[in-house]
Design a protein that fits this description.
The complex is a heterodimer of chains A (147) and B (151). Chain A is α+β, with helices and mostly antiparallel strands and 147 residues long. Chain A has helices at residues 2-9, 30-34, 49-52, 63-74, and strands at 18-20, 77-79, 88-96, 99-106, 112-115, 121-124, 137-145. A seven-stranded antiparallel beta sheet of chain A has the order 1-6-5-4-3-7-2. The model of chain A has no long low-confidence stretch (mean pLDDT 91). Chain B is mainly alpha-helical. In chain B, 56% of the residues lie in helices and 0% in strands. In chain B, 30% of the residues are buried. Chain A binds chain B through residues 1, 5-6, 9-10, 24, 26-27, 29-31, 39-44, 46-49, 52, 61, 99-103, 115-119, 134, and chain B through 71, 73-81, 109-112, 114-115, 128, 131-135.
Chain lengths: 147, 151
């Protein structure tokens, strides 16, 4: 059943294009993982302290809405592509049916890392590996200076 | 609600079969979800129970819905998608009787039950400092449940 769930989540995911890097946990989600945290499940409006102050009527649940939060709260700016850029960390935001669904973070070697909701972390070869299922497609790329 | 001595006569065998399959006994527990669906259909249903409300059937229904919810949302991060899942909404529709079952599920392992608990109970015992920490948010609700003697 577990494999069937992941197949529905990301139909293109396979042992050839990804590697499991943790056990399943609800301690954190993809958004927390992307900004380097494993102690919080982050989402608007009720799952992250800074987001509590956001006016509910203005909340934008699209990828663009989340991109705006990543810019104001975490210093990311939108960029053109998923290609590696020296001195920068990149993330890819996914969207399906107008709603943000997932965020992946690029690793130093060019591969990507994702926390699959309450499932495990994985590394994956490209952003497209997670496309086509419940996550939809990567629609926005962002970058910020690496630490 | 007094369920005794009310008559339930399904008009359609398909609906009886569906109800039977879902909760195990069409003469068993009556849920608010079923009641509302019939009211919304505008049918002239009568409702019959054999004996009192069936706690075992309620627990069974919760288990079925809960398992489906967890399976369907396990890979998701967006809380809108997690809590707008039909199974999750059906659990909220079960009302107060399902609160102890949710709390017992939290005792087994933390999960995103907080929005359901808040929707049913109209309370929110989560400390601000715990927001986003699923384990601590679960503990806040479990403490609330113990104070209310629900667990």
């Amino acid at each position: 059943m577990y494999d069937a769930l992941k197949k529905k989540l990301c139909p293109q995911l396979s042992a050839q294009n990804s590697l499991k890097t943790s056990d399943p946990t609800l301690d954190y989600n993809c958004l927390a993982w992307a900004i380097g945290r494993t102690d919080v499940w982050m989402d608007i409006p009720n799952y992250f302290q800074p987001f509590l102050n956001l006016e509910p009527s203005t909340l934008d649940h699209s990828a663009k809405g989340y991109a705006s939060l990543l810019e104001t709260e975490f210093g990311f700016v939108e960029c053109d592509s998923s290609n590696m850029e020296d001195g920068h960390q990149k993330v890819a935001l996914y969207e399906k049916d107008g709603d943000w669904t997932h965020i992946a973070v690029q690793l130093a070697g060019g591969k990507w890392s994702s926390k699959l909701g309450g499932l495990e972390d994985i590394t994956h070869d490209s952003v497209d590996v997670l496309a086509g299922g419940q996550y939809g497609h990567a629609v926005i790329f962002m970058k910020r200076p690496s630490n | 609600m007094d369920y005794m001595n009310q008559c339930y006569t399904p008009k359609h065998e398909t609906m009886k079969h569906s109800y039977n399959k879902h909760v195990g006994s069409w003469a068993g527990a009556w849920t608010w979800r079923e009641k509302l669906s019939r009211r919304d259909k505008g049918d002239d249903w009568k409702i019959q129970f054999v004996g009192t409300s069936n706690e075992a059937a309620i627990a069974k229904e919760f288990e079925v819905l809960s398992s489906k919810w967890k399976a369907e949302t396990s890979g998701l991060s967006n809380m809108l998608h997690i809590t707008r899942n039909d199974n999750y909404l059906d659990i909220i529709g079960m009302g107060d009787k399902v609160v102890p079952l949710i709390l017992k599920d939290l005792m087994k392992s933390p999960h995103h039950w907080f929005i359901a608990l808040k929707a049913i109970t109209k309370e929110n015992p989560i400390a601000n400092a715990h927001i986003g920490n699923v384990r601590k948010m679960s503990d806040d609700w479990l403490q609330w449940g113990k104070k209310k003697r629900l667990i």
